[in-house]
Design goal:
disordered C terminus; 487 residues; mainly alpha
Length: 487
């Protein structure tokens, strides 16, 4: 069948797969609770994609065209999948080499429970601004901070919320960030004009988040462990600790700051971690391999190799520590890869059949005022994160669809670019099947729905952005200012 024989989907047709998806996902959570992302959600996404495909066939699409759309959708997540796999290796070698245990050990000496949540948020914000990557931040200092929270007896859901809030604040304001460059490109403005305009929404949101984390810290500090001697002793007995083990994370942060792409930087970090394990944790490596028939050197090499693909199984004197450190390896990330591929299958069919565009057009018709236009842009970006499961699509499609409307109404393009990031970038880690939500859950070891209520920065930002839209505060017209100059 020729492409021009395709008929446009009705709004009902476009919404049907979304309704099916929401129903199935709600049922998944009801039946399987925290285990919903370990298979049930994947089935919900595949079945919803099947419904969308059947509707696509009704509108004249061939299976080959739909399959091509699925392949394209999955290809968009290839970079994320590769990063996810190499992060699994990095976690494995950094635990085996003592890097993560050392970061936890020193962190326990410095961070008091009463200030932990706010401090974790601030630390991640600084690192993310320097690196331009929320994923790199969460997969380096974020892992250690989760370990520290566990040792202190604090809520890991709140800790993950603080890590994600800080990581996305820094990512959003860093000129090194890919989404921070993508949003102004789609809206039609320049990078530094975009960053300056985002300060109006990000600073109040971050201030509110830090205040809330500080308040929670004060009231939850009494529940932290007063005596960490046993925990620290278990770390010291199982690993050879020392400041030299902070070199691998320092190398990764340096490479990312120098604009090396995330995948090779993290892969180098994983390999350096494995090398450090062979050099400084030989007893731990041999215990991990547990193959008495191998000579010492081959056994060390096998341990290095195993940490890259298989779970490290901790066997310390602390049960909590064992639970915390038994993870890592590419194999540990395969369930998340499955989730992302299922989500991108659904998103690929929805985009190929024009259903995403049909939903977005219907939303645009409701935007009569400036406030409703801003709210519609925010809602569309959030919807794309839910339906298309990818933050880049949540920026590109609304940017492409609303750009002309902002221009026609005399609104500066930086208003659009800010909306795209306020909703498209920041809500992505709060969707369990979104590439970002799946990554954060797998990386931090905390289910998305557990940390979601504590992503204060991510939740506050789009709300503040919507308020600005309806009040007109910081919403600038094209003819109301001189042209911005790139700093």
């Amino acid at each position: 069948m020729k492409p021009n024989s395709h008929s446009a989907p009705s709004l009902l047709d476009a919404l049907t797969p979304v309704i099916v998806l929401i129903t199935l996902l709600a049922s998944s959570v009801f039946f399987f609770k925290d285990d919903s992302s370990y298979g049930p959600n994947q089935i919900a996404l595949i079945l919803s994609a099947a419904v969308a495909a059947l509707l696509g066939l009704k509108h004249g699409f061939t299976w080959k065209e739909l399959e091509k759309g699925i392949v394209h959708g999955i290809s968009l997540s290839t970079s994320a999948l590769l990063i996810l796999l190499v992060v699994g290796s990095l976690i494995g070698t950094w635990i085996l080499s003592g890097v993560v245990p050392t970061m936890i050990y020193y962190g326990l000496m410095i961070l008091h429970p009463s200030v932990f949540y706010a401090a974790a948020c601030a630390i991640c914000a600084v690192v993310a601004i320097a690196t331009g990557s929320s994923w790199t931040t969460a997969s380096t200092v974020g892992i250690a901070l989760i370990g520290i929270a566990t040792a202190l007896g604090l809520d890991v859901g709140i800790a993950a919320g603080a890590i994600i809030s800080g990581s996305y604040f820094g990512d959003k304001l860093s000129p090194l960030s890919d989404t921070t460059n993508l949003a102004p490109a789609m809206a039609g403005t320049d990078l530094f004009t975009h960053i300056r305009h985002m300060l109006w929404t990000t600073i109040p949101s971050m201030t509110l988040a830090l205040i809330l984390f500080a308040i929670i810290g004060v009231f939850s500090s009494a529940h932290g462990r007063a005596d960490l001697t046993t925990f620290n002793q278990a770390l010291a007995d199982s690993f050879s600790l020392g400041p030299h083990l902070l070199i691998p994370p320092a190398i990764v942060l340096f490479l990312v700051i120098k604009k090396m792409p995330a995948f090779p930087a993290l892969l180098i970090g994983a390999l350096v971690g494995g090398l450090f394990a062979v050099m400084f944790q030989q007893d731990a490596v041999l215990k991990y391999v547990n193959d008495p028939e191998l000579a010492r050197v081959p056994a060390l090499l096998k341990g290095f190799w195993m940490a890259l693909f298989s779970n490290y199984e901790a066997s310390t004197a602390s049960a909590d520590l064992n639970k915390l450190l038994t993870r890592g390896g590419m194999g540990d990330m395969l369930n998340t890869v499955w989730l992302i591929m299922s989500a991108m299958t659904f998103g690929g069919v929805m985009e190929t059949t024009g259903m995403l565009e049909r939903i977005a057009r219907s939303i645009l018709k409701l935007a009569k005022s400036t406030g409703s236009l801003v709210a519609s842009t925010l809602a569309t970006s959030i919807g794309m994160n839910i339906v298309a499961s990818d933050q880049y699509i949540a920026i590109v499609i609304p940017g492409r669809m609303f750009r002309a409307e902002f221009e026609n109404r005399g609104l500066h393009a930086k208003n659009l670019s800010r909306c795209l990031e306020d909703a498209g970038t920041l809500t992505s880690p709060m969707i369990p099947w979104n590439t970002c939500g799946a990554f954060m859950a797998a990386n931090l070891g905390v289910p998305t729905l557990v940390y979601l209520p504590f992503c204060f920065f991510n939740m506050a930002n789009p709300i503040i952005s919507a308020i600005y839209g309806f009040t007109g505060f910081t919403i600038e017209k094209i003819d109301a200012e001189n042209e911005d100059v790139v700093a």
